[in-house]
Design goal:
The protein is mainly alpha-helical. It is built from 18 helices and twelve strands. A three-stranded parallel β-sheet has the order 1-2-3. Strand 2, helix 2 and strand 3 form a beta-alpha-beta unit. The structure holds glutamic acid.
């Protein structure tokens, strides 16, 4: 048995926890948990200009919401600043770093890699940064569990900055020192860090004996156009999905599928099974499509699996008009539960029952009424039938079948095409194409309101 791993998630609090970060959390968590290791949290809050303390709360809260607890107290990187500077000084003393006023030329020629003043013996001073003395020859190689061996020649790495001219440690230095001090054995992080890894390893090697971690750089997330997900263009904050009524267990399940899949192809399964099955080596290096529709479909599966009382309890915080929607949901809860994809959808399935008029979804109207010339005769025939039919589910259904035949909704065997024929009636009554079962809804709505809505839709057509 190999030694238990020590993993960490190291967010910079410059934004909300987004789905890419959450996937990184999950893969670290799965990997650590399946091997009896530790999963630590380190807030990389050294960039004081871009850092927003309230975002730390959002990040920690989102991780808790996902149910992916961490071990011990979160480490705040800013508290380690003296230690970062101490290592910087030791690197100078050992000849691995030097003070430099060099500014790489910004021209079109081949990039300059070596500071022109690396051997000038300068001390700290105005406008001088501390740079790493990258070896002239050789290369740094590391094994990435997802990408295989990665080798970068030292000739391609510039004498990079460790401490800025203003005295603050750079990300690379703080990151490598903290991982070393926390004895991190496995660094699982986003692909954007792969190019910085050789520098990280040069720093650690220069620090002397240390735990040299194994790396795994997780594939980027892209949208349906294969464009990288961006915080500016896409709604990607975990808290946005929470606000939309995605269940944390569905979110976690879906995140596990971003770059990985269970060997038997069964994608919807509890976290305990994911812990068993997850294999970091099987994570794909190509970009993973973040598919909101699939997330919502999986969420629908999780919603349907809840006991109805539990479902109603979870819907509760999402009700805007609880006093009116609650009684209807009590009636139709099980029907709504089988149809919704998010908790926030639920109220929209029943609000037609208490609103004076349904809120018409224009896309639904266009589809069910606007583009089907049978819609008008269907409404006319339904009005005529339902004016006389007894107000019970079977009678309403039989009456509607007659209306469907009269309006031309006829299948190959000459019977009524009830599903198609229901669409214009449903939109007229509820404003939407999906909702609770139609005839139960009509009973709940009552005859007068039903007929008034059908007539209003007919007038509008
Ligand atoms: N603070 C870095 C980030 O938020 C993470 C670095 C790492 O995981 O090593 O991207």
């Amino acid at each position: 048995m190999t030694e238990a791993p020590r993993c960490r998630f190291a967010p910079s609090p410059t934004g909300f926890l987004h789905v890419g970060g959450a996937r990184t959390v999950l893969f670290n968590w799965l990997f650590a948990r399946q091997r009896g290791g530790s999963f630590l949290l380190r807030v990389e809050d050294t960039d004081l200009d871009r850092n927003q303390p309230e975002l730390v709360d959002d990040i920690l809260r989102s991780i808790e919401w996902l149910g992916l607890g961490w071990d011990g107290e979160p480490v705040h990187q800013s508290a380690n600043r003296d230690r970062h500077l101490e290592v910087a000084e030791a690197l100078v003393a050992a000849g691995h770093a030097f003070w430099s006023g060099w500014q790489p030329a910004q021209g079109s020629g081949p990039p300059e890699r070596r500071a022109t003043d690396r051997d000038a013996g300068l001390g700290p001073g105005e406008g001088r940064a501390l740079r790493f003395r990258v070896p002239d020859g050789g290369a740094t190689t590391f094994t990435d569990l997802i990408r295989g061996d990665v080798t970068v020649g030292h000739a391609d790495i510039e004498d990079f900055v460790l401490v800025r001219a203003n005295g603050t440690p750079m990300f690379l230095l703080a990151n490598a020192v903290d991982d070393s001090d926390m004895a991190i054995t496995h660094v699982l992080r986003g692909e954007e860090h792969v190019n910085g890894t050789p520098k990280y390893l040069l720093i650690q090697a220069a620090m002397g004996p240390t735990v040299r971690p194994t790396f795994a750089h997780l594939p980027i997330l892209v949208d349906e156009q294969r464009k990288k997900l961006s915080k500016r263009k896409h709604a990607v904050a975990v808290s946005d999905f929470e606000a939309k009524g995605i269940l944390p267990e569905a979110m976690v399940n879906y995140l596990a599928l971003l770059g990985w899949g269970p060997p038997d192809g069964i994608e919807v399964r509890p976290l305990a099974e994911l812990v068993e099955l997850f294999r970091l080596e099987d994570v794909n290096s190509s970009p993973a499509f973040f598919d909101v529709k699939k997330l919502e479909a999986i969420n629908g599966d999780y919603l349907r699996a809840l006991p109805v009382e539990d479902f109603l309890g979870r819907v509760e915080p999402f009700l805007e008009h609880g006093e009116r929607s609650r009684p209807v949901l009590r009636e139709l809860g099980a029907e709504v539960q089988t149809r919704v994809r998010t908790l926030a959808d639920a109220e929209g399935y029943v609000d037609f029952l208490w609103r004076d008029e349904p809120e018409i979804d224009e896309a639904a109207w266009a589809k069910a009424l606007g583009r089907d010339e049978r819609a008008a005769p269907m409404l006319d025939a339904t009005i005529a039938e339902w004016e006389a039919a007894p107000l019970d589910v079977d009678a309403l259904k039989a009456a509607m079948e007659r209306a469907a035949l009269a309006a031309g909704y006829v299948n190959a065997e000459g019977g009524p095409q009830l599903g198609k024929a229901q669409a214009p009636v449903r939109v007229a009554l509820t404003g939407r194409t999906v909702g609770p079962p139609l005839f139960e809804s009509v009973v709940a709505l009552g005859r007068d309101r039903t007929l008034a809505r059908l007539r209003e839709a007919r007038r509008r057509l």
